[in-house]
């Protein structure tokens, strides 16, 4: 036991370092120092990887050691491994899914038991699903970190400022929202999605409705469901516990065993150039606000659906920008993506 990083760095017998302190600094400096001291590094820390994946990968390569991070996305699900395996022979053109156990647990409990957001969040914290600061879970930033890592690997790029891309969380969802969506045959989930086309990619974190028969709607508790679409493999779904002490530890140990058995993971240098395109994907949205938002949305077809304004076929990036303006006037406003095959009325 030590609380001095230098003792670990200078210990010749320590050849693998598992970083589990979380956050950006000093985790970033410690990981880099461990790699530069010729030690393999394993981490579950998605916040630091989302920013420094290329830097860590370059440092590992330069020092002839491994940098593995299976537990950072999807908890116990072998998602990174599955994605990397798909990429050995395929072009992965899109990724989408439920990347956050805490928000899924909250939405699931609200739908099943009609419990309030605040009460269920407390339960998720007690079960050890939530981040130290749970706003990362409910405001979508944890999903953004995991989506950024997945997209970096899938497209071999280095996304900068991923937390400035479209992110809208579930902080403002109410029991009446959940009930209304249920009555219409939908479940609401917080999802992350990205798609590439040519040299462009898009990226969004947002609440979305799913028809009750879909896999997403049937993903309960702290489970995650992450899907990729490959040119030859088609759709592949990865399902399992996305948060929690034991599933996360399981993924960390898998990485340690890979190092022991000298199993190499996919080589990526993250140096492909692609442009983020906010107009690449269009969607339908339900917007709930106490203020009149029609003026902001006048370029799009609108229809009233109960307490919600339905916005038809708006570019995803623009919808998120408009919601930022709406939230300034109405802090409790909410929006949700609606699948095109599932008109709510
Ligand atoms: N807080 C995260 C979640 C932990 O709820 O998904 C796993 O990354």
Care to describe what's here?
This protein is an alpha+beta fold and 345 residues long. The protein has eleven helices and 13 strands. It has helices at 5-10, 27-36, 46-62, 79-89, 101-113, 117-126, 135-138, 141-155, 175-183, 245-260, 316-329, and strands spanning 16-19, 40-43, 67-68, 92-98, 186-197, 200-211, 223-230, 234-241, 275-276, 282-288, 302-305, 308-315, 334-338. The strands form three sheets. It has a six-stranded mixed sheet. Strands 11-12-10-13 form a four-stranded antiparallel sheet, covered by helices on one side. Helix 3 runs parallel beside helix 8. The protein starts with a helix and ends in a 7-residue tail after the last strand. The structure holds L-homoserine. L-homoserine is lined by residues 75, 100-102, 129-131, 137, 142, 242-243.
Share of β-strand residues: 15-25%
What is the overall shape?
globular
Number of strands: 13
Helix content estimate: 25-40%
Q: What fold name goes in the CATH topology slot of the largest domain?
A: Dihydrodipicolinate Reductase, domain 2
By secondary-structure content and strand pairing, the structural class works out as alpha+beta
Second rung of CATH, namely the architecture of the largest domain:
2-Layer Sandwich
EC number: 1.1.1.3
Domain Aspartate/homoserine dehydrogenase NAD-binding: 2-70
Protein name: Homoserine dehydrogenase
GO molecular function, one term: NADP binding
């Amino acid at each position: 036991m030590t609380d001095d990083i230098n003792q670990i760095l200078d210990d010749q017998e320590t050849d693998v370092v598992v970083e589990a302190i979380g956050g950006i600094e000093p985790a970033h400096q410690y990981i880099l120092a461990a790699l530069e001291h010729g030690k393999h590094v394993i981490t579950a820390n998605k916040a630091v990887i989302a920013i420094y994946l290329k830097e860590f990968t370059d440092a590992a390569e330069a020092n002839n050691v491994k940098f593995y991070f299976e537990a950072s996305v999807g908890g116990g699900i072998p998602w990174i491994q599955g994605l990397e395996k798909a990429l050995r022979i395929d072009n992965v053109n899109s990724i989408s899914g439920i990347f956050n156990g805490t928000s899924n647990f909250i939405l699931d409990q609200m739908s099943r038991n009609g419990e309030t957001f605040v009460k269920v969040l407390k339960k998720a914290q007690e079960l050890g699903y939530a981040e130290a600061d749970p706003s990362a879970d409910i405001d979508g930033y944890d999903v953004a970190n995991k989506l950024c890592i997945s997209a970096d690997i899938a497209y071999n790029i280095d996304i900068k400022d991923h937390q400035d891309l479209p992110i809208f969380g579930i902080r403002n969802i109410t029991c009446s929202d959940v009930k209304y969506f249920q009555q219409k045959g939908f479940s609401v989930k917080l999802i992350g999605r990205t798609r590439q086309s040519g040299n462009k990619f898009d990226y969004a974190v947002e609440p979305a409705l799913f028809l009750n028969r879909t896999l997403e709607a049937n993903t309960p508790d702290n489970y995650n469901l992450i899907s990729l679409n490959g040119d030859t493999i088609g759709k592949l779904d990865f399902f399992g516990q996305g948060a929690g002490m034991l599933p996360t530890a399981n993924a960390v140990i898998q990485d340690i065993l890979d190092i022991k058995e000298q199993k190499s993971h996919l080589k990526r240098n993250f140096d492909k150039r692609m442009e983020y395109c906010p107009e690449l994907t269009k969607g339908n949205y339900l917007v709930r606000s106490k203020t009149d938002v029609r003026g902001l949305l006048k370029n799009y077809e609108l229809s009233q659906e109960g307490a919600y304004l339905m916005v038809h076929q708006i570019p995803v990036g623009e919808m998120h920008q408009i919601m930022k303006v709406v939230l300034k006037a109405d802090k409790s406003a909410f929006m949700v993506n609606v699948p095109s095959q599932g008109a709510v009325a």
